[in-house]
Amino acid sequence: MSGSLGNPLAVVAYQIPSQVIWSYSVGGLVFAIGLAGIFARGDWQKARAFDKLILFGPLFYAAPIAAFGTEHFTLTPMIASLVPSWIPWHMFWAYFVGACFIAAGFSLVTGIQTRLAASLLGLTFFLFVVLMDAPAWAQNPRDRFAAILTLRELAFSGGPLALAASLSGSGEKSGKNVLATIARYFVAIPVVFYSFEQFLHPDRVPGVPLEPLTPQWIFGHAIWTYVAAVAYGVTGILLLVKKKTRAAATWCGLSVLLVELVVYVPIGIVERARLDRGLNYVFDTLMFCGTVLLLAGAMPREGSAKSLAREGIRH
């Protein structure tokens, strides 16, 4: 026994609750499969410049959604309590949605029924907005955190909708364009709103500006909130007015990734034994990064858009 406790890794594992370990394990497995797939399929070698970053969109979305799905099995009573009272079978929905989230995570990184999984994820998060988040916000319209959470779920709906649009065939051009447009607004509106929030409250954590304060020991401290606020403001407006949308979404995703690495990974290491302030915040921000990169992948290339416009004029 003393020998095992002398191993630093064993000590760390012993101190971390099992529900945290399960979420990290499932999310980590999905992440590893997705990362291996990017290189095994040759996607990394084929992609150029910022397209290499866009490749990580499905991976950055899939690993967190699988980890969150795992929480539906390790924290079932708490998750079930979030289901609106007028909906029956709370425990059933907690398990069912959790299983779907885990399956969707594996689908997004393996390419198996990815379009179906993305479409259902988009629908699921939109239902979360309509059935839970928006009504909660309506009860207290001045609660800015309720607004932030509602818009976060809306963005989480927009990301997979963008992926579904990018996977649509050429024969479904009209539906593809409508889906991509909906996804663009679902992501752009939260990004612009978050920009204002981060300018007004630079002491709060950046990325998805939730309630916790940025720890004083984070290098640069509040500067990262201002960096995210500026990046969100510029890229969000470009997305809203439909200008350079692919580049805007990519730069926005890069800014979220920077915040993830500089702010949330250190927080996750320090708070490694906690779900609420540790794993959940790390994966929440990573999932938001994946959301924006999924949108980038669905947006037209600047050169392609111009050529299509010229062809339209000729005809």
Secondary-structure blueprint:
Elements lengths: L1 H5 L1 H8 L2 H23 L2 H4 L4 H4 L2 H18 L1 H5 L9 H21 L3 H26 L4 H23 L6 H28 L22 H18 L4 H26 L4 H24 L3 H13 L1
Question: Which features does this protein show?
Answer:
315 residues, mainly alpha, 15 helices, 0% strand
Structure description:
By secondary structure, the protein is mostly helical. It has one domain (2-307). The protein is built from 15 helices and no strands. It is globular.
Biggest sheet architecture: none
What are the low-pLDDT stretches, counting only 5+ consecutive residues below 50? 1-5, 307-315
Number of domains: 1
Shape: globular
In angstroms, what is the radius of gyration?
20 Å
Mean pLDDT: 90
Number of strands: 0
| H/E series | HHHHHHHHHHHHHHH
Approximate helicity band: over 70%
How much of the sequence lies in strands comes to: under 5%
Q: What structural class do you assign from the helix and strand content?
A: mainly alpha
Summed up, the helix count is 15
Gap from first CA to last CA: 79 Å
Summary of the model, kept short:
It is built from 15 helices and no strands.
